[in-house]
Each structure stands twice: as structure tokens, then as C-alpha cells.
Design brief:
Number of strands: 11
Radius of gyration: 24 Å
Helix content: 40-55%
Distance between the termini: 68 Å
CATH superfamily of the largest domain: P-loop containing nucleotide triphosphate hydrolases
Strand content: 15-25%
CATH class of the largest domain: Alpha Beta
Structural class: alpha/beta
Largest sheet: 9 strands, mixed
CATH topology of the largest domain: Rossmann fold
């Protein structure tokens, strides 16, 4: 029994929930799309493994190639379309993802994401350019200017309406190991991926590959894959990922939300309700092409259309008042 100075627990809980915007609900596992990252040194099999996984996830595969057309060497083994880039601005990747989404690709491979960090036009160059242009060479100012560009890129990757697989280069080194004859022999190994610190948190599954084409799962939200060591990953590995993704409650596909946002007859109220759903699922950064073919994001498109509709309504009201 509550004392004179204590309210019953049920009343206290009721009081809290009646005065707050934050409401807790029971968690359920939902179906989702793959967000996979593979890192490793040159020759470790990242591209081949990415294509193998992609073939298990979807029928239509798009590959954004930053490696001078190297992915074409596998065109006799896998069916995929390719976009070859020579300049690696993060905003260009957002546009490429928007084009892939509009074309309906089930899977997009970015091979490799490292170029959008350290390649021509990548984040490091963007920071350096911004620092020299507006901050007297101060790199802190450069990062402040360029960071939103990186955020748009990451949001577009994790909000793409299909599956996403990225590869990342790893700096290489050699270690001495004892072989079966007792002799010391060098072995090529991958070190830290060429990408910003902490990017792996954005992906559900992260695997590191070595020169012997062995994949070690270093991070996984799929419990059955945690710590897995897979020699020359085949189609079965991709099928395991797909089974985990499909094990859950069905949710409204991202492409349906994009289609709703692009509806020419959508009202201001329709867009408001849609924006609530988009924000609840943190999909504002989903890449899309607007009706004019201009790359944008789902959140930005909804907001822009909402402004246009609101202004049209205000103008109409003013005209009626004037009449």
C-alpha cells in the first residue's frame, strides 16, 4: 500500500505518460534490406564476394565501379549493370543511388566506398578544398563545411530502397608466419579500412577478407553469422543473409513511400502524414529522382512539395478574399 507521501505506481506511470511525447512500444523484428560492408587488401576477393552475395539477394544488380572497370572481368560469371566513375564526390554517389533506385535495382554494390573518402573528389579532398577556400587552411573549418556532404552520402546508402553492399580497401602489410615445414614465410594481410573511423556502425554485417579469400565476420546483427569464418564465400553465405533479413514482420517498402511522395495528386495533408511515417523510420535521406529527373532525398522532396502546396493554398485564399 502506498504511504501518504507515495502515489501508487500505476498512477505515477499514468502521470508520466500523459505529459510526454515519448511513448514506448513493444519491439518486434522487422524485415529489412541488406547493409553489408566488406574490407580487405587488394586481391582478397572483395568484388567477387560482393557479386556472389548480391546474386543471392536480388535479380537486378547495379554496380558502381570506382576501380577503372575491374568489375567487368566478372561479367561472364554474374549478371549486373555497371556505372563507372572517375570522380568521387559524395554527392555524386547520392545521385548515382537515386538513379539506381529510380531504375528499380534490387541490389547496389559500391566498389569501392574508399574512393569516396580518399579518391579524387572524395571527402578528404572536399575538406581540404573547403579549408583553403573559406577557413584560411584550417582543417577544423573544412570538416565543418564538408561533414554534411558525408552525412547525405551515408544516409543515402542506409536508406536505399534495395540491398546495399560496399567494399572498402584496407591498407596492406606483411606478417611472418611459420608454414607447415617450419619455415618463416611472409603473408599479406589487411589493416585498417580506408574510410572514416566508425563507419562500420552504419552496416548490419561487416566482413574482413584476407589474401586467401577467407572472410571473417567482424560485426553482425545476425546472431548466426557472428564471428563466422568463411573460406571463399559462396552463394550459401548470401542465402544465410537473405534468410535473416526476411525473418520478421513485413513493413511498407521504402519504394512505396517514394512512390507516394511522387504522386502528382498528393495533398498537403497526405504529405504531412507521409512525413510522419518517413521520420519514424528515419528515411529522410532515401535517395530519389524527382519528376524532373533531379536527384534529391525523400525528406527534402516531401518538404519542398509541402511548401509549394501551402503557398498555392495561401494564394488561393488571398484571391478569394480580394474578390
Amino acid at each position: 500500500m502506498a504511504t501518504a507521501n507515495e502515489a501508487p505506481a500505476s498512477n505515477m506511470a499514468a502521470g508520466r505518460t500523459s505529459h510526454t511525447r515519448f511513448q514506448f512500444t513493444q519491439a518486434t523484428k522487422e524485415q529489412s534490406k541488406a547493409r553489408v560492408a566488406l574490407d580487405g587488401p587488394s586481391g582478397s576477393g572483395k568484388t567477387y564476394t560482393a557479386l556472389t552475395i548480391a546474386s543471392a539477394l536480388g535479380a537486378r544488380v547495379a554496380l558502381i565501379d570506382t576501380e577503372r572497370g575491374s568489375a567487368r572481368k566478372y561479367a561472364n560469371e554474374f549478371a549486373f549493370d555497371v556505372l563507372e566513375l572517375a570522380y568521387f564526390s559524395p554527392d555524386d554517389l547520392v545521385e548515382a543511388l537515386a538513379a539506381a533506385g529510380a531504375a528499380g535495382y534490387d541490389v547496389v554494390i559500391v566498389d569501392s566506398l574508399s574512393h569516396f573518402w580518399s579518391g579524387s573528389g572524395g571527402m578528404l579532398e572536399q575538406v581540404d578544398h573547403a579549408a583553403k577556400k573559406g577557413f584560411g587552411g584550417n582543417s577544423f573549418g573544412g570538416w565543418k563545411e564538408a561533414r554534411p556532404m558525408e552525412r547525405r552520402m551515408v544516409d543515402a546508402l542506409v536508406s536505399y530502397p534495395g540491398h546495399v553492399i560496399v567494399t572498402m580497401r584496407a591498407k596492406t602489410d606483411y606478417v611472418l608466419e611459420t608454414n607447415d615445414r617450419g619455415k618463416q614465410v611472409p603473408r599479406k594481410v589487411g589493416m585498417k579500412p580506408e574510410q572514416r573511423e566508425g563507419l562500420e556502425y552504419e552496416f548490419d554485417i561487416v566482413g574482413s577478407m584476407d589474401w586467401e579469400n577467407t572472410l571473417i565476420v567482424t560485426k553482425s546483427r545476425a546472431r548466426e553469422l557472428t564471428g563466422a569464418v568463411v573460406r571463399q564465400p559462396g552463394i550459401e553465405f548470401g542465402q544465410q543473409i537473405r534468410a535473416w533479413l526476411e525473418d520478421g514482420t513485413a513493413v511498407e517498402p521504402i519504394e512505396d513511400l517514394i512512390s507516394e511522395a511522387l504522386r502528382p495528386d498528393a495533398t498537403f495533408e497526405d504529405l504531412g502524414a507521409l512525413m510522419k511515417k518517413v521520420r519514424a523510420r528515419r528515411l529522410e535521406g532515401a535517395p530519389l529522382l524527382d519528376p524532373a529527373g533531379t536527384p534529391t532525398t525523400l525528406g527534402a522532396h516531401i518538404q519542398e512539395r509541402g511548401k509549394v502546396l501551402r503557398k498555392a493554398a495561401q494564394d488561393s485564399n488571398q484571391e478569394r478574399s480580394a474578390a
